[in-house]
């Protein structure tokens, strides 16, 4: 069979640029904690953290790098953003494709959530569903790309509608960062959260939160600044970065950001779309296989879901694992997306690609699914 084929990059990109692991090893050996001393190792850490913010600002369209906050994950960032803008009884509009990292924090704070369930792969219905709920909304939270279906929601138009209605916007860019062009300043969102370990090719345990203005964090503690005060600093990024920084992770994330910027998001998206189109076309002609692919490829990124009639999705996933293909089966931590697409009872088998996958791997994958389905 040869080497195992990794097709679960929507969860984590396992295949990374070699520069990522090298940067992490160098950080372990040479970097201390930024802001915690004037010695050489601390100054090196200061410089590395700053250069990572610069790399992120250039890729993501953030004019002030200090508005980029390091987090442990996209979930961490979304919790900060939600608690900054949403309280008990707040009327919050979300798309019908949100991850549990959005819906669970909203439930925890007691928000009044309205699901704007536009049809799958129909941007116009997504926009209308959100626009029609803005009159009495206190906040909007939207997933840029569905982690289940790869569906690209019309974020630019949603953001414009929120600006016109003067409604704050939180964006979950976990699946779009690194694959789709992003310009945070032009978008005008209040917060944008993303994972470092997916399309940005950084290590697990890293994430970024892009902030429009300072806010109160969910963790209090040392920052290396304003140490006489018993309250957190009121400026970014210190206001949201209590505790010791994950410097090996930040160094690896910087290397991932630089890889994405050098290769280009448009190039990466074109590559991933070509692979997903190849997979969708190959799977669609297999009897009993149902593929959730966009009629227009412009509406889908590097994620594809499918089911096999009469087979449990977990069983299909196990068979594929045995055949040497790493995919994910189930609800993918996004039951609302399945509820919207009417796949809640069955779940789906999901393949998700990265810049490191090849057409040959996809063709082998399609053959493996054909064998299982038959």
Structural description of this entry:
This protein is α/β, with parallel strands linked by helices. The chain has 2 domains: 5-16 and 265-373, Aspartate Aminotransferase, domain 1 (Alpha-Beta Complex); 18-263, Type I PLP-dependent aspartate aminotransferase-like (Major domain) (Aspartate Aminotransferase, domain 2). Helices cover 40% and strands 15% of the residues. The strands form 3 sheets. Strands 2-8-7-6-5-3-4 form a 7-stranded mixed β-sheet, with helices on both faces. Helix 7 (184-187) links the parallel strand 6 and strand 7. Helix 1 runs antiparallel to helix 8 (247-263) and helix 2 (40-60) packs parallel to helix 8 (247-263). The longest helix has 21 residues, at 40-60. It is globular and about 70 Å long. The mean pLDDT is 97.
């Amino acid at each position: 069979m040869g080497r195992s084929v990794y097709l679960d990059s929507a969860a984590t990109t396992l295949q990374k640029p070699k520069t990522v692991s090298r940067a992490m090893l160098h950080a372990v050996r040479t970097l201390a904690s930024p802001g915690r001393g004037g010695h050489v190792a601390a100054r090196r850490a200061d410089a590395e953290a700053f250069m990572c913010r610069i790399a992120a600002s250039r890729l993501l369209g953030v004019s002030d790098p200090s508005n980029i906050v390091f987090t442990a994950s996209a979930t961490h960032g979304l919790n900060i953003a939600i608690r900054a803008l949403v309280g008990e009884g707040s009327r919050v509009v979300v798309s019908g494709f949100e991850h549990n990292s959005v819906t669970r924090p909203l439930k925890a704070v007691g928000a009044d959530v309205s699901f704007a369930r536009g049809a799958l792969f129909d941007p116009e219905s997504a926009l209308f569903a959100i626009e029609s709920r803005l009159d009495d909304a206190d906040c909007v939270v939207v997933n840029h790309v569905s982690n289940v279906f790869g569906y690209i929601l019309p974020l630019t138009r949603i953001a414009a509608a929120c600006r016109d209605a003067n409604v704050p916007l939180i964006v979950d860019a976990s699946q779009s960062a690194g694959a789709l062009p992003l310009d945070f300043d032009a978008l005008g969102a209040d917060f944008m959260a993303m994972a470092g370990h997916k399309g940005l090719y950084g290590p697990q345990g890293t994430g970024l939160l892009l902030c429009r203005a300072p806010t109160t964090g969910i963790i209090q503690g040392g920052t290396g600044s304003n140490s006489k005060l018993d309250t957190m600093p009121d400026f970014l990024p210190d206001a949201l970065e209590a505790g010791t920084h994950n410097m090996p992770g930040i160094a690896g994330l910087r290397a991932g950001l630089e890889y994405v910027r050098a290769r280009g998001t448009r190039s990466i998206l074109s590559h991933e779309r070509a692979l997903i189109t190849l997979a969708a076309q190959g799977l669609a002609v297999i009897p009993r296989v149902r593929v959730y692919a966009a009629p227009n490829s412009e509406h889908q990124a590097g994620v594809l879901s499918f089911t096999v009639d009469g087979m449990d999705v977990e069983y299909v996933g196990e068979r594929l694992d045995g055949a040497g293909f790493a995919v994910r089966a189930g609800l993918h931590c996004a039951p609302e997306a399945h509820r919207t697409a009417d796949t809640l009872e069955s779940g789906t088998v999901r393949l998700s690609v990265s810049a490191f996958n090849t057409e040959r791997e996809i063709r082998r994958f399609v053959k493996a699914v054909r064998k299982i389905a038959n």
